[in-house]
Amino acid sequence: xxxxxxxxxxxxxxxxxxxxxxxxxxxxxxxxxxxxxxxxxxxxxxxxxxxxxxxxxxxxxxxxxxxxxxxxxxxxxxxxxxxxxxxxxxxxxxxxxxxxxxxxxxxxxxxxxxxxxxxxxxxxxxxxxxxxxxxxxxxxxxxxxxxxxxxxxxxxxxxxxxxxxxxxxxxxxxxxxxxxxxxxxxxxxxxxxxxxxxxxxxxxxxxxxxxxxxxxxxxxxxxxxxxxxxxxxxxxxxxxxxxxxxxxxxxxxxxxxxxxxxxxxxxxxxxxxxxxxxx
Length: 279
Fold this sequence. Notes:
By secondary structure, this protein is an all-alpha fold.
């Protein structure tokens, strides 16, 4: 092995030692302590699975994921194509800049402004509906509309980021592929199905998995927009666990709530690592 390569490997190994210790002390040890504390009383975990509140929170999490993820990524896929197609025009450049504004805004003020816009009496959305002669919508007063409000805010806030990633992935596809297909008479839809989609499918799958994992831990969109209301009906696993720990000081129950979804998150992370490992 060349001397320069040996020095580089040695330097890299030595440099990573502080990071390894940091990871062990601040990630591994707290995780082990959480396991031991959460599993100290198995009856709490068993009671959790029989709890109506927990079952409703798990159901809301599934509704949130099944509602937000498809809308977010179908929209990101098509909007990234639109922005790429018009990237050289003034309209495309202005649209790209404006489209990224929701993602660039801080989450807390954006969520609070969104919540104000959903107010039944004074909200912007109901004001528009009233001006159009339509009935007002109880966005935050009924369970179905509250869940829809959470999904809409999450999509509005985070779809621009995933659009940007897909946009970058589509830009890496050589234009010669599209030019050759166009010469052969391929339509826009055929070029998308036979060139674009196969070349970005791995990136697309990784983005979907990452978004799913992060969305499981979504707290701000739920707590700041609906406060898990009305009457706690829009709780998810994350908001329920955080409420048990910080509001009710029930540490063991809160940890058990988070541990209950750990197998699901671990399976997603394993699948993600498999995708990263493929050539």
